[in-house]
Design a protein that fits this description.
eight-stranded antiparallel sheet; alpha+beta
Length: 377
């Protein structure tokens, strides 16, 4: 049985190794996506706020952006919680999906700081590489299959690692002063053991994005039914008037949701739908906890809400899947753990390949026939 498991572990590893390396390395970068973006591109998020100056109206900023790009329609507006933060507009042209123009503005001067295609940004490309290998649906299928293989590799690897009583110490630590062959084996087996729980959970949660049936399985487990499509409530827009309705929406959102957080005003795809306003609670340790409010376009009148606390257990669990997958569940400690485990996971196909190659290229020992000595009579 162990020989069969070893064969399965080997060939699943060889089949999925390259994809696992790409997905693990890109995933390690995405763990600190927000921190790295703010570190390397601070001008996209922060501006110098003049003393005593007030931020411009969102409606005025939106009008200025529209005048600059009249062929585009607003998709959403992102407002960071800090007073010296920028306001970012995402615009779409026609019915193109996924291709947005990112326009970053200074809310004190109205100056456009940056304009560029959203899908060309570094971390958007990394995320596309992580999820789809930058190959669309075909890439999604490949990463899904490889992720499933990796989950089986982790289980089979644990079975192969499991030590006998007299070898337990040997299996729990790396012998750094050993030969390369022994050191490589330890790096593969021992490090693989120490991270197996984390990477197994990461692989399983990754399947939620790869397969719709896995996503629905989560909802069946908590709600007893598949995921229901969520749409903004019906709310016919009012004709444009003198009301600064975007400012009204932003102000009321912060009054109803008093915690610190990023506000995202998303415009409806259908004419008779309300404007959706999501606010991510940055006061919580766990990332991506979002409450949603709905407002009437044109007037800013409150229509309804969809709060995280009132969501179904399935929806709440689905929301938590992302921070579990990316290490954002308990803030920096779990992020650092996820980062380290992702790097080690990327090394496992390499060390595993070297183990296999070493065995494959090893010359078989040829036994020499025993020479019989002549016996004198």
């Amino acid at each position: 049985m162990k020989k069969l498991i070893g064969w399965l572990h080997l060939w699943l590893g060889l089949a999925s190794g390259l994809v696992v390396i790409v997905v693990a390395l890109s995933g390690s970068l995405l763990v600190f996506e927000d921190e790295l973006e703010h570190l390397f591109q601070p001008s996209l998020f922060n501006v110098q706020s003049p003393s005593g100056a007030e931020r411009m109206s969102l409606d005025v900023l939106a009008a200025m952006v529209h005048d600059k790009y009249p062929d585009y329609k607003p998709n959403n507006i992102e407002i960071q919680p800090e007073a010296n933060s920028t306001v970012t507009f995402y615009l779409k042209k026609g019915k193109e999906k996924g291709k947005l123009l990112m326009v970053v503005t200074n809310p004190y001067s109205g100056k456009i700081i940056y304009t560029g295609a959203q899908d060309k940004r570094f971390f958007v490309v990394v995320k596309n590489l992580h999820r789809h290998l930058c190959m669309g649906e075909a890439g999604k299928l490949i990463t899904g299959i490889s992720c499933s293989m990796f989950a089986l590799i982790i289980i089979s690897g644990l079975i192969l690692w499991w030590p006998k009583k007299n070898t337990r110490k040997q299996r729990m630590k790396v012998k750094w002063n050993a030969s390369f062959k022994r050191l490589n084996w330890d790096l593969h087996a021992v490090f693989g053991f120490y991270i197996h729980i984390v990477i197994f959970i990461t692989a399983l949660t990754g399947l939620v994005w790869s397969y719709k049936w896995v996503n629905n399985l989560l909802f069946y487990a908590f709600d007893g039914k598949p995921q229901q499509k969520i749409e903004a409530p019906v709310s016919k827009p009012e004709k444009a008037n003198d009301i600064a309705w975007l400012d009204k929406i932003f102000t009321e959102t912060n009054q109803r949701l008093t915690y610190n957080g990023i506000v995202n005003i998303r415009f409806p795809e259908k004419k008779d739908q309300a404007v959706s306003v999501g606010k991510e609670n940055t006061d919580r340790i766990t990332t991506h906890i979002v409450d949603v409010l709905y407002f009437q376009a044109g007037s800013g009148a409150f229509v309804g809400d969809k709060l995280f606390a009132n969501d179904t257990k399935g929806t709440q669990a689905r929301r938590i899947v992302y921070p579990i997958h990316t290490g954002g569940l308990f803030g920096w400690p779990t992020k650092i753990l996820a980062f380290i485990c992702a790097l080690i996971a990327a090394s496992l196909p390499v060390t595993g390949f070297l183990i296999w190659w070493g065995k494959k290229s090893k010359k078989p020992v040829v036994k020499k026939p025993l020479q019989q000595k002549a016996v004198s009579i």
